Amino acid sequence: MALITYLTRIQIDFGALKLLDAELQLLGIRRPLIVTDKGVIGAGLWAKVKEQLPGNMPITLYDGTPENPTEAAMRDALKIYKDEGCDGIVAIGGGSPMDLAKAVGLMATHPGNSLQAYSFVEGGAPRITARVAPIVAIPTTSGTGSEVSRGGVIIMDSGRKLAIGSPYLIPKLALIDPELTLSMPPHLTAGTGMDAFTHNIECYLANVFNPPADAIALDGLEKAWKYVERATRDGQDREARFNMAVAAMEGAMVFQKGLGAVHALSHPTGGLKGYRTHHGTLNAVYLPAVLRFNAPAVGDKYRRVAQVMGLPERESNAEGVANAVGALNVRLGIPKGLGAMGLKPEVVEAIADGALGDHCHQTTPRQPTKAEYVQLIEQSWG
Q: What is the DSSP letter of 122?
């Protein structure tokens, strides 16, 4: 049996930020906790958001979100939320602040002290109820699509990078103003853009029945393929920025179908202690090898992917699509492999073990063994 649901309230366009106060009133949020990070503060983006809030509104700011959000950071933000009597959350930034906001909204209203108990792999999704505190998500990047997704990925106290997920964690409002992405530097535009690209292609290839998700994923894939290079080359290209915002949103709208081995690998890689790796960049690096690996299990889907990407007939197969993605990575300046990102060979076993236990392993069209995950990592080493 297939469960298909879509999704939440979305305001998207240049200038959408002006709707913020009216939308908060609709949700009854009058004492928000702002969850963001120091990069957003430094870029002046929080200042732009604050301009749209009433001067007499009690505002509490948490800007300590790490690059990869942690359960410890969740506790810090949660204490502020409770101490200040907040009644909702406004998350501003990329996927990290939005994922952290979901964890705070969950633990502010649900019993227990362990976020991991609510993770997918711990069977926690059914424990998440409609009591989750209301969240408004304002993305400043075009990649994760966390503003419309039901999940969040957090490094738990145990050291594992795990996903929490439920329809109740979807933000009540996604306020998507591409104006906030114009200042993104090229390397971040490329990494987040390839995150959106990977979401769409992995969802399309996932081994779950969901035709609406497939249609949305193909549209997001087409937009990401067409516009990520333009947005990276010229950050002021408003058409490219708008379409990348749509591609990111669509990639996350189809999360409910499932992802695959790329994310099963990038999650534990991103959770490695002692390394600082960007999630979308990891996805870009792992994607070509996984595309080739999936070939026996996806039927004629690569033919449709190749059509969307505008590839010639002779390249409408796994090898052709993988080669095209690899060439795009080069043009975008994506690192040539995991080694170029600073990883050491001793982490390979840990990544493979983590991939086997990741929730995305369940929906990849061809499930690798541990040995095959090791091969995929080695093929992505560069």
A: G
Q: Which two tokens stand for residue 231?
A: 């947005």
- Condensed to tens digits (0 to 9), the pLDDT of residues 103-124 reads 999 999 999 989 999 998 889 9
Do 128 and 166 form a contact (C-beta atoms < 8 A)? yes
What does the DSSP assignment read for 133-197? PPEEEEESSSS--GGG-SEEEEE-TTS-EEEEE-GGGS-SEEEE-GGGGTT--HHHHHHHHHHHH
Dig out the tokens for 207 from the structure: 């081994």
* Claim: this prediction has a pTM higher than 0.85: yes
CATH of 9-181, one of 3.40.50.2300, 3.40.50.300, 3.40.120.10, 3.40.50.1970: 3.40.50.1970
pLDDT in tens, 20-45: 999 999 999 999 999 999 999 999 99
For the chain, which residues make up each domain, given as ranges? 9-181, 186-379
CATH topology of domain 186-379: Dehydroquinate synthase-like, alpha domain (1.20.1090)
Q: What contacts 172, CB < 8 A, 6 or more positions away?
A: 8, 9, 27, 134, 135, 136
3-state helix vs strand vs coil in the chain, percent to 5: 55, 10, 35
**In whole angstroms, what is the distance from residue 247 CA to residue 224 CA?**
6
Q: CA 219 → CA 169, 176, 254, 305, distances in Å?
A: 25, 18, 11, 10
Q: List the beta bridge partners of residue 34.
A: 61, 90
- Rounded CA separation 192/280 (Å): 5
Dihedral, 309, 311, 317, 320 alpha carbons, nearest 10: -100
Region class of 138: left (phi > 0), else alpha (psi between -120 and 50), else beta: beta
d(CA 298, CA 213): 16
What is the pairing mode between strands 161-165 and 60-62? unpaired
C-beta separation of 197 from 224 below 8 A: yes
Reading the block at residue 244, the tokens are 């990348």
User: Distances from the Cα of 69 to the Cαs of 270, 298, 376, in angstroms?
Assistant: 11, 33, 26
Distance CA 149, CA 196 (A): 12
Task: Identify whether the C-beta of residue 316 lies closer than 8 Å to the C-beta of residue 303.
Answer: yes
